[in-house]
Amino acid sequence: MYCSKCGKEVDESSEFCKHCGARLAGDTPEAEPKLSAEHAEAVPTYEKPKMIPPDMIERNERMVFETHPSKMEAFFKYIAGGILLIAGGIALMVLLGWVIFGWVLIGAGAIIGLIGFIKWRSVIYGLTTDRIIVLSGILSKHLYENRLDRVQDIRMDISIRQRIFNYGDISITTAGTGGVEYIWRNIPEPRKRQRQLRTVVAG
């Protein structure tokens, strides 16, 4: 059997083309489950992006949300270590008089903290009325985008630490792939973001 959209050969039992993700001819879409009253509520949107460059947004596309990963994850990975090194450097200078070694620790701590801050700021997760967007990179930029009509499964994972500070991971599986296509890692308010994503995908 061949896909009516891209023309490539696919298995007879396949529901979606493994090459382009299109639903194969002859298959009838399953009835979409009814949304709960909570999910049926309209999702607020806005026109002009605040973090994503405006030229990346199409004419009739509206933003649902934009966000950086959780600040707390950046703190645990980088900033806390930088603060400890700076504090250690100050302690060495004040208590022991080791000025040079103290300044080395302070400089190293400042660099580690700055790297953590820049890496946190360099990742942007976005959801529009048409697409999922992930923009990352400090000097060079990397863009991942996927149309909402290709989203098949959404999974949320929240560890104990993430639960305490209200952030988590949302995994997205799309048509035409064998597994998870992308993960919004350490995204703030994961339950809210998952509900928004489910609503715009269903709508």
Description:
This protein is of the alpha+beta class and 203 residues long. The chain folds into 2 domains: 37-69 and 127-202, PH-domain like (Roll), CATH 2.30.29; 74-119. The chain is built from 5 helices and 7 strands. It has helices spanning 37-40, 71-96, 99-121, 160-165, 190-202; strands spanning 63-67, 124-128, 131-136, 142-147, 151-157, 167-174, 180-188. It has a 4-stranded antiparallel β-sheet, covered by helices on one side. Strand 3 (131-136) and strand 4 (142-147) form a beta hairpin. Helix 2 packs antiparallel against helix 3. The longest helix is centred in the middle third of the chain and has 26 residues, at 71-96. The relative contact order is 0.14. The model is unreliable at 26-40 (pLDDT under 50).
Task: Please sum up the structure shown.
By secondary structure, the chain is α+β, with helices and mostly antiparallel strands. The protein has helices at residues 37-40, 71-96, 99-121, 160-165, 190-202, and strands at 63-67, 124-128, 131-136, 142-147, 151-157, 167-174, 180-188. It is 35% helix and 23% strand.
